[in-house]
Amino acid sequence: NKEENEEENEEENKEENEEENKEIENGVIGYIISDENNISICKRSSKNIICEEYTITETSCTSDNIGKLFKNNEKNSNEKTSNEETTNEETSNEKIFICLNYSDKEYSVELNDANQGNYVLYKSSTTNETFGTSNNKPYVIITINKSSVLLNTKYSNGLKYVYINKEGNSASSMYKIMNKGDRCPKNIENSSVLIEKNILELECDNGLCSKP
Question: CB of 177 within 8 A of CB of 118?
């Protein structure tokens, strides 16, 4: 039994290593999420891409953790009545977000199916940077879904520039890339007037962007 267990463990480790090497070969940069306790982070180191285990330690989006994942605990109180006695049952639901930017307020998005799509992350500092932002190109295009946040080096809208509605039409669409047919931000009192300060125009190359 001991030998069988050792062989099974070796096979499992081999499969994990093969999967990790596959991600490196594919040039994946960003976060790969199996669940909240099993997360890998892949980032460029010199000419190579190094993947390692990642633990979420942040609980909010701040100017110090742009580009990092964070958890937000939501507690719900449910009342149950039995034998004329009432007890409160609290359940904790931890949701995972990524911090996209912080400028006077946080810009973040929850990782779930409803919010999947292409977003822009802004980080002027290169300290502990995952996606490859720099002083010359502080913006990056990332593709988000519930199981990953990855640098999108192949994004193209067929236009010269990429456009972002910074404030979004909802909290979950802040810094989301605008697609054809999306509504532009307009003045509430006068719908014919665009709120130009909310529109970000970027010139991008391999997912790395700057203002033109």
Answer: yes
